[in-house]
Design brief:
By secondary structure, the chain is mainly β. Helices cover 0% and strands 46% of the residues.
Length: 79
């Protein structure tokens, strides 16, 4: 995760199988990235194994100022 700006940011990271409206297979609450660092690595335990070719969606939603607002999103196909 990379951040830009001069303030800290806190939120919940969610991994979904099948795209943005799919089944939640991973969740980490309260992830913070602080101004002192430009990036942060995050390891998320998944509830099940991901199949090759499966569509995954990862979102990071605000847990602080604008609760639930989307901070960042990414979608990809598992190798």
């Amino acid at each position: 995760m990379a951040r830009d700006g001069v303030t800290s940011i806190f939120g919940d990271v969610e991994v979904r199988a099948g795209g943005p409206k799919g089944l939640v297979i991973g969740l980490v609450n309260g992830v913070g990235v602080y101004p002192e660092v430009d990036s942060r690595h995050l390891r998320i335990s998944l509830r099940r194994k991901v199949a090759s070719g499966e569509h995954l969606s990862i979102t990071w939603r605000d847990q602080d100022v604008k609760r639930g607002a989307l901070i960042s999103a990414s979608e990809f196909i598992a190798p």
